[in-house]
Amino acid sequence: MNYTTAPEAEEAVKDILSERGKVKSVARANMLVVTDIPTNLFKIREVIEKLDRATPQAYVDAKIVKTQIQIGENLGIQWATQVTATGSQRPATFPFGSLNKSKDSDFFDRALNRFFPSTANTAVSNPLNPLGFPTLEGDATPIFAGGDSMPFTFGTLDFTSFQSVLQFLRERTNTKVISNPRITVLNNQTARINAGDEVPLPTLERNETTGSLEITGFEYRDTGVVLEVTPHINDANEILVDLKPEVSAQNGSQDFGNGDFTDIPIFSVESAQTQVLIKSGETIAIGGLQTDSVDSSEVKVPILGDVPLLGKLFRSKRQTKGSDNRKREILFFVTVTVVDTEGQPVLPVLSKRLKSNGMLPSPGVKSASR
Question: What is the pLDDT of residues 238-247, one digit of tens each?
Answer without folding.
Answer: 889 988 888 8
